[in-house]
Structures are given as C-alpha cells and as structure tokens.
Design a protein that fits this description.
CATH superfamily of the largest domain in chain B: MetI-like
CATH topology of the largest domain in chain A: Rossmann fold
Number of helices of chain B: 14
Protein name (chain A): ABC transporter ATP-binding protein
Number of domains of chain B: 2
Pfam family, one (chain A): OB_MalK
Shape of chain B: flat
CATH architecture of the largest domain in chain B: Orthogonal Bundle
Order of helices and strands of chain B: HHEEHHHHHHHHHHHH
Largest interface: A-B, 24 and 18 residues
Strand order of the largest sheet of chain A: 6-7-8-3-9-10
Shape of chain A: elongated
Radius of gyration of chain B: 27 Å
CATH class of the largest domain in chain B: Mainly Alpha
Helix content of chain B: over 70%
Distance between the termini of chain A: 40 Å
CATH superfamily of the largest domain in chain A: P-loop containing nucleotide triphosphate hydrolases
Oligomer: heterodimer
Keywords (chain A): ATP-binding, Nucleotide-binding, Transport
Number of strands of chain A: 21
Strand order of the largest sheet of chain B: 1-2
Number of domains of chain A: 2
GO molecular function (chain A): ABC-type transporter activity; ATP binding; ATP hydrolysis activity
CATH topology of the largest domain in chain B: MetI-like fold
GO cellular component, one term (chain A): ATP-binding cassette (ABC) transporter complex, substrate-binding subunit-containing
Number of strands of chain B: 2
Strand content of chain B: under 5%
Largest sheet of chain B: 2 strands, antiparallel
Chain lengths: ~375, ~300
C-alpha cells in the first residue's frame, strides 16, 4: 500500500502541441479510492496510463510512496491494472491468467496456488479456474481481471473503466462489489470512469478533468454541493444543474421575473470582468413549484418524465427575451401536464459563478 | 416446378416435428436430391481432377510401362523404389527441403515480422523482404544461377575481396547444392510468411501486451508466453503451407541443377518427372508420385489434426 503523487505531470503526444494531461497535481492517500472522471478525451485514461508506465511523463513527475517512478518500466512500479476489455490472456486458463505475474516473479508454487485460490474464493471463481476466458461470461471475465490484479498484492490498483462492458444491472452490482473489495483490501486505488454515478458512488474522493486540466478534486458530497466551477457543476449530477448566465443587478442576479439576492461581496466578485453578467445554477431538486403571483419564474412544461417516486419536468422560460430550457424534480404523484405554465422558485441560495471565468463564488 | 412445390409442402411437418408421414418421407428424399444437386458440380470436379488422375496413376504404378507396352508387375515398382539409392537420396533431399523451409523462411519470417512490427523503419525493411516474393520461381532461379554458378557473382566477389580460397562449386556437390537452393528459396519465400505473421501480430490486442508488461513480462518472455500463443492460428496456416510447398519443390531445383549432378539434388517431384517423362518409365514414375502423394497427404493430415485437437 502506498501514496500516489502527481507532481505537475504532463503528457504531450507526439505530433501534438497541446498536452493531453496538463500539469496534473494530485495527492492520493494511502488506502484511498480516487476516481478520475470526465468526458471523452479529458485525459483521465492518459493520467492513469502515465501512472501505470504505459505512457511517458513528458514534464513533471509521478511518485509512488514518495519514490519517483516517472522513468521506471511498468513492471518495476508494483501496480496492477484492470482494463476496460479485461485484456485476459486468451490462451491461458483462469488459473494461469491469475498466476502469470506471480510465475514471472518466481513465486513458490505453493504460494501461487494459495493466493490464486484465495482470490478465486473472494470473487466466486473457484469452479472456473480450469476454463479459458472465451468460455466465461462478461461478468466472470471482469472478475478474473480483478483477480489477476488482486493476487499480485500490488501497492496500487489501477482500473480503466472496468465496468463499461457489462450490462446495466451487472454494472450496478459489480460497482458495489468493487467498492467493498477495495475497502476490505485497503489498497490504494485509482479508478477511471466517464460515468459520474460510478464516480460519486465509489470514490472516497473524485477528481474531475477537462481538456487535460484538473477542475476539482473533492469528496463526492462536496463535489455535488460546492462545484468549483461551471464545468463541474454541469458535469456532476443527473439531470444536470440548470445553469444560466443572466443580468447582474446591484443586489443580486435577475433571473427573468425572479430576483436572486446576493451579498455585497458576492456581487463585487461576480462583477469582475463579467460585463454586468452573472452565472446562476440550481439543481433540479432545489426548486419549488409555487403559485402564480408568488414571485416565481414562469415556465411552460414541454415534457414530464415519470420515474415512480419522482418526476422530472422539462420546460422553457423566458429570460431577458431569450427562451431557456429548465429541468426540475417534483413529486412523482403530483406532476403538471404538458403545456401547463408553472412557477419556479429556488429553495436555497443558488450556486453563483463568475460569468467570465466560470469560477464559483461563495456567499 | 413440381419438385419445388413438394419441398414447400413437406417443410411444415418437418419443422413441427410431427409424426413421420408419407409427405415427410417424400420431402426428405427430395431434400437429399436438392443437396446432392448443389454439391454435384464440386464433387464432379474433385472426381475428374483429383480422384480419377490419382486412381489412374495408382493403377499404372502396378505396370511395367514404357509407353508402348504394359505388363502387370504388381508391387515390383514399389519394391524397386525401396532398394533404389537414387530414390533414397531423393527422399532425403525432400526431407531436407521440408526441414529447411520450416527452419528458414518460416522462422525468419516470424522473427522479421516481430522485429519490424513497431519500429520506425519497419515498413522499409518489410518492403525489401517482400519484393522477392513478387518474382516468379523461374526468375528467382535465373538470378541465383547468376550468383551461384562456378564463375558466378559469389565466387568472383570472393576472389575480388581476397577470399578466393572460400570459393565453392556451389551447385555441384551434395549436400551443399540442396542447402544453397533452400537458401535461394528462403530469399524468395520469407516475405510471404512475414506478411502472414504481421497480420497475425496486428490482431493481438494492444491491451493484452500492456497487461503482460504490467505483469512483468518483457523481451523473450513476452514473446514466448504472450505473443507466440496468440499467433497460433496464423502459424498453423504458415507452417501447413510451408510443409506442402516444400514437399512439392520442383521449379527452382529443375532450373538450377536439373536435379544433378546426376540425381544428387533431386526431390521426389523431380524424380517423378525424370522417371516418367525423361526415361519413359511410366509405371515407376507413377509409383514415385503415389509415394509423394501419400507423404503430402499424410503430413498435412497429421499436422492439421494435431493442431485441431490441441486448440
């Protein structure tokens, strides 16, 4: 077990001037489960592969347990990785797949046997040890890939979208199994996903990347409650936060007919370089439907998505002459109808961002 | 037209799995007829082009036949083969060709494919290796004759650089002549096996190689434990083709030495040709070709069966 440190680590692919990962600074604690999340091409997989030694570190350094591993080959880093397509050796049995790394390290046979059997028991793979990967289901293959990592007893686990090739039900099930397994083994884990639900449910901390730049790293709760900028606010949460750039008045933001009062400091910060605009965000569940004349923002309902206990109401409202889309969550048993006009009022103080920089403003 | 309607009528009971009825029996008979009709052209070709010539040849091998008169001699031709030193040499040469072809073009093709697979100048190197494959066997033979004959390019070069004592009569002594001809074939044939191995290499998923790197494999260990096993389907094809092609070796030997001096560098294919068409010993030549056929079929069958079983 070990800590992992990205020290201004950059990766620039040959033939490109823009770094795929740009001066990434990240401290991962011993035993921590850190999730790297972001849209396609944000550099999350590249960051993981840099840690694995499968990509060069062009600038900066990567440290495992305080030791600079930037120039070490993968096998010298004492890490194990689970790939999206599992990358099992097709010509080896499940047992041999799991034992391969140990055999290469000349681990005694009895020890190999013990560790593989232990991992197999942990992952319910005992009866498949003699099978080849092609005779296994997707979920079983995924578990073999996990097993291959576990038997190594590495310092760090790396997982590159390990659930993406599973069907939805199995994904949810395996998600909790991996989290439980990590908690039990206590091995430092870096996990890459594009799925924010996975990120929020599995990680002790979540790091959001965009265009190779780290946007925020925090606990899932803080990430959700206090997104550091507009990108994180829009990326984390489903359906996404309602984010609108509107006029900034002397006392706060003006959201159509709805005034959002802000402190004097917040108004000052929001005004910096923003040309009299401010970005306001509120989550679908942080909105109340109020009666006409209660000072709410009027919205015409376009679509109602019923999810049983809840419903999402999609609609459009007029903001300074432009039509804007909104989504709100309501009680599933009391939903408006399509075409109705409803009045929205944020329940708590909305998230406020500087309209020019996109940075969060507190207060 | 009538047959078609019968098939349509007969189909439902067959799919429903109902009790055997008159209609179903009639249906399965006409079904067999249809299957037979579709297979007939292929079967006919096999019979006309393979079975008939083979059986005719096998039949002729039981005769003493000089083209004018035939006399039944039973297995005498085969008995003569066994005690014929020329045939023994020819068989030995053929074995050398098989071993040499497996050792050189196949192994070299594999090594070159691996070495050039992901290096910067790989494509240039590959092109250089593949070009000779585009030449015909006779062009290759002519080129190598120019190199190998006693006053040829190799000996002249050796003299020019002061290594005159290394000069050889490359094509005049056994087993040197067979060995240099195997090398000439290697020069021509390596490209083909290299290309096939390259295709095989490119089908190996990158993640598997990366996983092996993380597991601690590199260099030869990676090659043996990860790359080679996954090249297996391609290896089966390349080795199978190499075995069959080497057993049939004819053109390059015929053009470079005509099987000579004497019969020293003959392969089974050349012996067959010489006995049949030069010496007009049709029965004896037929016996040689039967032996060659049996060797080729047996080798391919054994090899492919082994491969099929172990997969």
């Amino acid at each position: 077990m070990a800590t992992v440190t990205y020290d201004a680590a950059s990766r620039i692919y040959p033939g490109s001037t823009k770094p795929a990962v740009d001066a990434l600074n990240l401290d991962i604690e011993d035993g921590e489960f850190l999730v790297l999340v972001g849209p396609s091409g944000c550099g999350k997989s590249t960051s993981l592969r840099m840690l694995a030694g499968l990509e060069d570190v062009d600038r900066g350094a990567i440290l495992i347990d305080g030791k600079d591993v930037s120039n070490l080959p993968p096998k010298a880093r004492d890490i194990a990785m689970v790939f999206q397509n599992y990358a099992l050796y097709p010509h080896m049995t499940v047992f041999d797949n799991m034992a391969f790394a140990l055999k290469l390290r000349k681990t005694p046979k009895s020890e190999i046997e013990r560790r593989v059997k232990e991992a197999a028991a942990l992952l319910n793979l005992q009866e498949y040890l003699d099978r080849k990967p092609k005779a296994l289901s997707g979920g079983q293959r995924q578990r073999v890939a996990m097993g291959r990592a576990i038997v190594r007893e590495p310092q760090v686990f790396l997982m590159d979208e390990p659930l993406s090739n599973l069907d939805a039900k199995l994904r949810v099930q395996t998600r909790s199994q991996i989290a439980a397994l990590q908690a039990r083994l206590g091995t430092t884990t870096v996990y890459v996903t594009h799925d924010q639900t996975e990120a929020l449910t599995m990680g002790h901390r979540v790091a959001v990347l965009k265009d190779g730049l780290l946007q925020q790293v925090d606990t899932p709760r803080n990430m959700y409650d206090k997104p550091a900028n507009v990108f994180v606010a829009g990326f984390i949460g489903s359906p996404a936060m309602n984010i609108k750039t509107v006029k900034l008045g002397d006392n706060g933001a003006v959201l159509g007919g709805l005034a959002v009062p802000l402190t004097r400091e917040a108004v000052a910060k929001a005004g910096e370089g923003a040309d009299g605009k401010v970005t306001v965000g509120f989550r679908p569940e942080d909105v109340q439907l109020v009666g006409e004349g209660d000072g709410g923002l009027s919205m015409t309902v376009d679509l109602v998505e019923e999810l049983g206990s809840d419903a999402y109401v999609y609609g459009r409202a007029d903001l300074d002459g432009a039509e804007e889309q909104f989504v709100i969550r309501t009680d599933g048993r009391h939903t408006p109808n399509m075409g109705d006009t409803v009045y929205l009022k944020p329940q708590s103080t909305p998230h406020i961002f500087n309209a020019a920089t996109g940075e969060r403003i507190d207060g | 037209m009538e047959v078609v309607t019968t098939v349509q009528k007969a189909a439902p009971p067959a799919t429903r799995g109902g009790a055997p009825t008159e209609g179903r029996r009639r249906g399965s008979a006409s079904r067999a007829l249809w299957i037979g009709a579709f297979l007939a052209p292929a079967i006919l070709l096999v019979i006309v082009l393979l079975a008939v010539p083979f059986l005719t040849t096998a039949y002729r091998s039981f005769f003493d036949d000089n083209g004018l008169s035939q006399k039944w001699v039973g297995l005498a031709n085969y008995a003569a083969l066994v005690s014929d030193p020329d045939f023994g040499r020819s068989l030995l040469n053929t074995v050398m060709w098989v071993a040499g072809t497996l050792l050189l073009p196949v192994l070299l093709g594999l090594v070159l494919a691996v070495l050039t697979n992901s290096v910067r100048w790989g494509s240039v190197a590959r092109t250089a290796v593949v070009i000779p494959y585009a030449l015909s066997g006779s062009a290759t033979a002519l080129l190598w004759q120019f190199l190998l004959q006693s006053d040829g390019a190799i000996n002249q070069t050796l003299t020019a650089v002061g290594l005159g004592s290394w000069q050889q009569e490359w094509l005049l002594h056994w087993p040197l002549n067979t060995i240099v001809m195997i090398i000439a074939t290697t020069w021509q044939a390596t490209g083909a096996s290299m290309i096939l191995f390259l295709i095989g290499l490119q089908t190996i998923p990158n993640e598997i190689v990366e996983a092996a790197k993380l597991d601690g494999a590199s260099g030869l260990r990676m090659f043996w434990s990860v790359v080679i096993p996954q090249l297996r389907p391609m290896t089966v094809v390349v080795v199978g083709m190499a075995i069959v092609n080497s057993l049939k070796t004819f053109d390059i030997v015929w053009l470079l030495t005509q099987g000579g001096p004497g019969t020293a560098s003959e392969t089974l294919a050349l012996t067959m040709y010489r006995e049949t068409f030069t010496l007009n010993r049709y029965g004896y030549g037929a016996a040689v070709s039967v032996v060659l056929t049996i060797v080729v079929v047996a080798a391919s069958w054994l090899y492919l069966r082994r491969q099929a079983r172990s997969r």
